[in-house]
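Notes to self, Hin1 protein:
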Amino acid sequence: MALPFRHQQNPITATAAAAAATHVAVSLAASAIVFSKLSSPFTLLIILGVIALVLWLVLRPNKVKFYVTDATLTQFDLSTTNNTIFYDLALNMTIRNPNKRIGIYYDSIEARALYQGERFDSTNLEPFYQGHKNTSSLRPVFKGQSLVLLGDREKSNYNNEKNLGVYEMEVKLYMRIRLKVGWIKTHKIKPKIECDFKVPLGSNGRSSSANFEETRCHLDW
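result:
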């Protein structure tokens, strides 16, 4: 009995094809520079559009995904006399790079913690390089006390959440990154990541992470 034939793409051929397509894109870019002084702006835009299309077909970029996978809140007390919040919040976050040919340099990462739009802490995380099709972890920790300017409505919301034992938090990541394709590295890009999540308050210093639901963050380029 004949077995069905399955076509498998040769990885060497695929790599060669990608290299050839990249070479075409580079050649077109060189042509664009040469003809920029000889051609009309409309023609130059067409050439640049073709370059972008070739690179997109080669790289097929996929969106990087950010998640808050775990959160532990063991203290979150608001002093209404002086508008000071005492807090102890620890997060586990993941960054998934699904791309086959694009690596990412995270040159700087600042994590900011906010409550009802008011920032109460920030921390800088270690820079790192993330390879192709890779998942990396971040573990920002916010602990201390901070003055926050909450109005009557925000204080009422705080009291309601305190009674429920669950608080709505927001963490924003401000980054400077570079993309790496082969030997080419891009200029620095400044994406902003926003993560809105609900975290239960642990009792007697115990972890609250058992009741936490994983949350996907929003990426804004």
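- Residues 1-21, 30-36 have pLDDT under 50 and may be disordered.
- The domain at 65-220 is CATH 2.60.40 (Immunoglobulin-like).
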